[in-house]
Design brief:
mainly alpha, transmembrane helix, membrane, Cbb3-typ_cyt_oxidase_comp, transmembrane
Length: about 60
């Protein structure tokens, strides 16, 4: 196997990996989990309690 054949096979492997990742990212089965991950930024996990609000004022 010469250098040109190796480079061709390596390029083919990388292209197949790229198409696999694109297919995975745009599959309908993954859409719900991607939307959930995108909305995590807007999730309000914890509300400050009344004790935490007044703690700064006492100092």
């Amino acid at each position: 196997m010469d250098y040109g054949t190796f480079r061709g096979l390596y390029t083919l492997l990388l292209m197949l990996m790229m198409f696999g990742i694109i297919g995975w990212a745009y599959s309908k089965r993954r859409k719900a989990s991607f939307e959930e991950a995108a909305n995590l930024v807007f999730a309000d996990d914890e509300q400050p309690s009344a004790d935490n609000k007044n703690a700064g004022a006492k100092q």
